[in-house]
Design brief:
The chain is mainly α. It contains eight helices and no strands. The two termini are 25 Å apart.
């Protein structure tokens, strides 16, 4: 018991506290750096959209992506961990890159999700994905368009249209193999709501929290572990 307390204290001192401090600083810096381009446009070029139009644009964006403000931090945290959450929300491409890389790193090493070991291993996977992604994006910026131009039109269109769905499908398959009893519900909830033309924000919330609720019931019934 004493060793567990010592390990917990070391983990908090060596990992958790620096992660929180550095994470908060970098996120605040990123937020502040979002404003200089807008200030430049206003001061130098006098560009200032009317308030009413700005609010209309915000409502349109929030109606589509607002649910993610709640869903992503809650649903992604068990796989990303604390450090991974800071890094992922700062670098982007969470669902199609950071999350799969974190999950795969944990699976390869064989650690249990939600543990301290998983936190560290998952973060290493995310950091590796950021470095590789940075190199890949840089190369794609120079040769990506040229390379797509070499392919037949139907192949290039397939890359543009189906790459993201293919990644999401692979992620769904990866996690479905871990909890196959939950996979039908995770798929049926959004499909059912889309069939009745429910708002997209409701589909997202219901799919995530509905699956979580079902998982909780199954856990209580000892159907999953």
């Amino acid at each position: 018991m004493a060793n567990e307390q010592i390990n917990e204290q070391k983990y908090n001192e060596v990992w958790m506290k620096p992660v929180i401090r550095i994470g908060m600083i970098t996120m605040l810096i990123a937020c502040l750096l979002s404003f200089p381009p807008l200030i430049y446009l206003y001061v130098v070029h006098g560009v200032l959209p009317p308030f009413a139009q700005s609010m209309t644009a915000w409502v349109l964006v929030a109606s589509v992506f607002g649910a993610f403000y709640i869903v992503e931090p809650i649903s992604y945290y068990p796989i990303l961990g604390l450090a991974g959450t800071y890094i992922s929300f700062l670098s982007g491409n969470i669902s199609n890159l950071r999350l799969p890389c974190s999950a795969m790193a944990q699976e390869v090493v064989g650690v249990q999700e939600g543990t301290k070991q998983a936190e560290i291993i998952g973060t290493m996977g995310i950091v590796g994905s950021v470095i590789v992604n940075l190199i890949g994006v840089t190369l794609a910026a120079f040769v990506g368009t040229w390379l797509l131009g070499l392919f037949p039109k139907f192949v290039a269109d397939a890359f543009r249209q189906y790459t993201a769905p293919a990644i999401f499908g692979a992620v769904f398959g990866q996690f479905s193999m871990r909890q196959p009893k939950l996979a039908p519900f995770a798929l049926a909830i959004p499909l059912g709501l889309l069939y009745i033309k429910a708002p997209i924000w409701l589909v997202i919330l219901a799919a995530v929290f509905g699956t979580i609720a079902i998982a909780r019931v199954f856990y209580k019934m000892k159907l999953i572990h």
